[in-house]
Structure formats: structure tokens, C-alpha cells
Design goal:
This protein is mostly beta strands. It folds into 2 domains: 8-60, no CATH class; 74-299, no CATH class. The protein is 1% helix and 28% strand. The protein is built from 1 helix and 18 strands. The protein has one helix at 186-189, and strands at 8-12, 15-21, 28-36, 45-52, 59-60, 90-95, 98-103, 142-147, 165-167, 172-173, 177-179, 182-183, 197-200, 203-206, 226-230, 235-237, 256-259, 269-273. It has a 6-stranded mixed sheet, with no helix packed on it.
Amino acid sequence: MKYSKSLLLVLFGAGLFSIASCDEDDVPCVESVWYQDTDGDGLGNAAINQSACEQPAGYVLDDTDTDDSGTVAASGTPVSAFDDFNSDAVTISFDGDEITIESNGVPNHTSPYWDSNNSLYIDPVIANADQMSPGTIGSRSYSLTVSSDPQIASSSSSTGLGAIGIGISGAPIFNDEEGPNSSLSENVASGFDYAGGHMGPTGYHYHLECADVEENTTLSQDDEQLVGILQDGFLIYGRKCNATEDYPGDLDESGGHTSSTQHSDGGEFYHYHIINEFYVGEYILLFGGDLKGTPNGIM
């Protein structure tokens, strides 16, 4: 399709406008000057602009932003974060403004919950063998579709039984409940492996932060590593913050805040951290608060 254009420059007050024919029927439109809005706050950068009949993505009519660095408002989930997921278990798909995370639930670390014939089987390091739950690690199926630019909802949502997220290993993340109206107890937690996981009716899953043992080679332990993604689309990191190289002091009640991470190339976005507190005796939960975004089902 070809477009014929005839331009008439019109000086109107202090602004310069272009009148152009914008379709094949020579229907004229008035081009406006649009200003780049990197931080998504509705205010544009006067120094970066373009003229167009219709609003370009990421541009606004306003030109009064004094700081459009991309740090004012939360931005989308950094794609590079998904490079940290175990590619043998997890498949990431991008479709427009949606991201789908599919996993077979099979982690890539050692555990006494593997079958004893598996190369990843080890004797209990942390787990009390008498408190270990029955069953061995096997393949499952988990699928979570989230927005590529998740937003904080008008109200938070409590988590329920079952998977509330998917860890970087591929195994799902659970909350602080062990069953219906039954909170996780220190006695039950004593049967978890060093990775903070154990077996349940739906397979192997995590409740706790990884223990500080030499056997851990893949999971976050009192550091800034990525832990996984929760069902509202927000990433969750370890107890420390990459932006400050220390424990963040501005976390909300769910352990979230807006800052840069090792995946965002200096840009800031909202994400969770493991909260630096003991929730179950000496054990630290991966996530024990409410979801700040809109939860999506994990199938």
C-alpha cells in the first residue's frame, strides 16, 4: 500500500505543525509532536520527540518531565532474568505482553528426596530422616502465564495451598501452610532438605530458604540471587539487594520494593525479596506475605 503525502507547514503561535494526507484516500491529519515517556509517568522528555498523526508507543503529548530516566515508575520484567532458570526443566515463552513459564518440576540440585539410584541423590545433610515426608522427586507439570509488565493491584491477595510460584530450579514455591488451616511447623520443617524443600501430594516443592551448606551450588542463601517468579508475575530475589549489596531497608509488608537488580541494566522495577526474618523457628520462609499483584493460576 502506498501513501501519498503533501506537506503544508503552518506556523501556529509558538508551535510548528505538519498537515499531511495520512491514508490512500488523502484524508488529512494533523501531526502532533510526541515526547518520549521512558518512566511511564505520563510526562514526556522535551529533548526526545517525534511527529506523528497517531500516538507512538512510549510517547505522550506532555513535555514537562524533568527526570525521565526510567526510575520513577516500575518497568516491565527484565527478560534476562529468565536466563537464570534451569533450562532442563523450565521453558519460557513470550507472546505479546504475556510470558508463560512451563516446568516439569524437576530440580537440578542434590537431595535425599531423589530416588537412591539417581545421580543427584545424597544422604540427608540438613533433614531429620525421621521427619522426612514419603515419596521421591519425579516429573510433574506446571504452567504459569503472567504479564510482561505486572502492576501492583489496588488490594493485595492472600496466597493459598499449593504452588504460588516457580523457582529457578523448576520446582514450585509454596507458602507457609502445610495443609488446610495448618501452618508449617518447626517439626515438619526439620524434615526438609538443605534446599528448603520436601515431598507432598503434588510433588517436590520449596517452603524455605536454602541452608548454608557446601552442597548448595545453585540456590539463593543470604544473597542477591534470583529465587523465582511468583504467580502475580513479580520476581523474587534472595535476602540481599543488588542495588545496595546489603539487606534492603525499604521493603513493604510482602517483602517487595522498587529498585534495580542484576538483570535490569540499571532500570528499576518492583520485585520481592526473601524477608530477612525467622518465620518458623530457625527457618526462613521464601514467601509468607500477601501478593501485591493480581495472582494467576498455576496449572
